[in-house]
Design goal:
- β8 and β9 form a beta hairpin.
- α13 packs across α15 and α18 crosses α19.
- It is globular and about 60 Å long.
- The chain starts with a helix and ends in a 6-residue tail after the last strand.
- By secondary structure, the protein is mainly alpha-helical.
- The strands form 7 sheets. A 3-stranded mixed β-sheet has the order 6-7-12.
- Helices cover 48% and strands 11% of the residues.
Length: 435
């Protein structure tokens, strides 16, 4: 069982298992696939890249950093993080402590980044925001208030500060009211509280000078035995950072997550299509008994990993093996493929949906799990088509940039044209801990 658990928590398992679902359309239970529509998706992504960037080389990676730059003015940005870094440098803060502070911020902000719902909005002196941008800016303001710190340094997120966060405090900062409801408020608060506890459980990752905080992971990475330092640059294996994220932060996930034995697996769910594939004569998952129906996503963990990589660059870190990361199976990327006809719910599924309404499912429902499983291979195929159109290699235009410049943005823009509330074509009932 231990080898199965290690596999399920690995980056390699994500692409392997979702590709098994994708490559056996005869086993699908909920969706039909029309790959003839995929070139139009790639064309749209290329169109957005050419619209928003003078050159593809200018595309930043997909990261929480982008949401901190949100502005009420279309295609304009506010360099909030840059200004924050400048202020800390002026105050004489050394560069590694600046990175620790950014990591404290980014970890908590990503964990608060599940779907906010269509009604919630956040307003501060720079304007009014909703969805991911609103959550990002609200979480930044939460951090800057010192609400997550138990020390005299407000720009710190530590175990005691996190354990003391309350629904009332989070509700106040995030401006939640009956008129301004935030989906999964209590779930978000519980995530932060559990983060406080789990930091103490992994002192090798997070403890330094008797303080447990997410930002201390930079010291762990730099000093890891597999890290090589060449001309001042620390070459860190992506699996090293992934290990910190998937193991060190494992305690934040609710007990309701899928388990093997007593081990909670995180963002891993039973999938009927994969179960059918596993029964084929080839027995493709036979070497990992007990997991034949489990499809792995680790969406929030991958989103966190992508987001941590960017501030870690400031510590002269270069990551090796980033190509093992996958696209993110969430409602913007997945919604793009539904809205553009690549994926269509089967008639047998639609027959139970009231006419004129958006299909709605729980996060663990088979339709959602299958939708997410198909999204990851489709993102890979879309990225390949985009690179062909731009005559670029995977190294020149990595998946993280395709996600940022194109698929996530395209999913949002297509949704805005099709639905007044700008929501996804399939609604996911969220508890604030997955999406």
């Amino acid at each position: 069982m231990q080898s199965t658990i290690e596999h399920i928590k690995s980056l390699d398992s994500i692409r392997l298992r979702t590709n098994l679902v994708f490559s056996h359309p005869e086993c699908l239970q909920n969706f039909d696939i029309d790959l003839s529509k995929l070139p139009a998706v790639a064309d749209l992504v290329v169109e957005l890249i050419k619209r928003d960037y003078k050159s593809p080389a200018e595309i930043p990676p997909h990261s929480r950093w982008r949401h901190f730059e949100a502005s009420p003015v279309f295609n304009k940005t506010i360099d909030r993080i840059g200004d924050l870094i400048k202020s800390w440098k002026t105050a004489g803060i050394d560069h590694l402590e600046i990175v620790r502070r950014l990591l404290d911020l980014f970890v908590t902000s990503v964990l608060l980044d599940a779907g906010a719902g269509a009604k919630w909005k956040y307003t501060n002196s720079s304007g009014t925001y909703n969805r991911s941008e609103g959550l990002g800016i609200a979480s930044l303001d939460l951090f800057l208030e010192g609400a997550l710190s138990s020390s005299s340094n407000p720009f710190q997120c530590d175990s005691k500060g996190l354990e003391n966060i309350t629904v009332e405090k989070l509700s106040k900062v995030f401006q939640v009211s009956e008129e301004n409801p935030l989906v999964g408020l209590e779930g978000r608060c519980n995530l932060l509280q559990r983060l406080g506890s789990t930091l103490l459980n992994y002192p090798e990752f997070f403890s330094r000078d008797s303080v447990s905080r997410p930002g201390n992971l930079v010291d762990y990475l730099i000093n890891h035995p597999t890290t090589k330092t060449v001309d001042g640059t620390h070459q860190v294996q992506i699996e090293c950072l992934w290990h910190v994220v998937v193991v060190g932060f494992s305690g934040v996930w609710p007990d309701t997550r899928t388990k093997l034995g007593d081990t909670s697996l995180g963002d891993v769910w039973h999938c009927k299509a994969l179960e059918a594939v596993s029964k084929l004569p080839s027995k493709p998952l036979g070497q990992w008994p007990g997991s034949e129906s489990l499809v792995t996503f680790h969406k929030l963990s991958q989103w966190l990993t992508y987001s941590l990589m960017e501030p870690l660059l400031l510590a002269n870190i270069k990551f090796i093996g980033v190509e093992k990361m996958t696209g993110l199976p969430e409602y913007r990327n997945g919604g793009l493929f539904v809205d553009m006809g690549v994926l269509t719910l089967k008639k047998s599924i639609l027959s139970s949906v009231p006419a004129g309404t958006i299909p709605k499912f729980q996060v663990w429902d088979d339709a959602i799990v299958e939708w997410r499983a198909l999204t990851i291979p489709l993102l890979d195929k879309t990225a390949e088509l985009v690179r062909q159109r731009l005559n670029m290699t995977a190294e020149q235009l990595p998946l993280a940039k395709v996600l940022e410049a194109g698929t996530w943005k395209a999913g949002r823009e297509v949704a805005a044209k099709l639905r007044k509330d700008k929501g996804p074509p399939i609604e996911i009932i969220s508890d604030g801990t997955v999406f």
